[in-house]
Specification:
The protein is of the alpha/beta class. It has eight helices and ten strands. A six-stranded parallel beta sheet has the order 1-2-5-6-7-10. The chain has a two-stranded antiparallel ribbon with strand order 3-4. Strands 8-9 form a two-stranded parallel sheet. Strand 6, helix 6 and strand 7 form a beta-alpha-beta unit.
Length: 251
Amino acid sequence: MLPDHYKIVLDPLETLTFDAAHTSRVALGTSTINIPYYNPVMLARRLTTLDVLSAGRLRVAFGIAWSEDECDVFGVLMRERGRRADEFLQVLKAIWPSDPVEFHGEFYHVPKSHIFPKPVQQPHPPIYMGAFERRAFPRIATLCNGWNPVFFPPEVMTEMFGTIKTMAEEAGRDPAELELVVRANGRISDAPQGDDRPMFSGSAEQIAADVAAMRAIEPADLLFDPCQTTGVDTVEEIVSQMERFWELAQA
């Protein structure tokens, strides 16, 4: 039932490693890595390698997965995703700055170990969480550097991010340190769309207005996925979409 472009996807970390070798300034990020599909120790090493090879340009966003079919493939129960995610992030945050490393939880156990190298960015690369539901907010507030939402109107996003910041402050963190990094699944159409359209979908004028509305809430970053528009398949088409979104963002 999924679109074809969901079915043939390169591994994000190998792809970003290729990108790291061909760039020198851009941040290299994921949006998002599904936690249940990985072992935290091996993923920590892969992410560290990418941070080292890119001279500290890694930004990593996680999700807890939404496809029950995929969870079945990896042998993960849907009802365990949240608890796994909490432990998974704790394992990463133990591995990256510490030596020796030791962790014992419900799902993951790391006996006292020396795990090197460490990331260039210390205590760890920025961690973001993609989340739709409020029950995920404590995870962002206590374990992450920010929130990576999608699909919410600006006023809803502002209210929800405010809740996350309040939770962070109650947990003893400085809420000003949390970043809002918004993902825009853009679809450019020739004609204006109706009032029920998703944000960043519609005519060029409508998308430009969405960008302006998003600027008003001052996210740290707004990132467009150029592959969401129907008929965008080739490298040339993807680059063309990237250029159009860039123009709209600057308008």
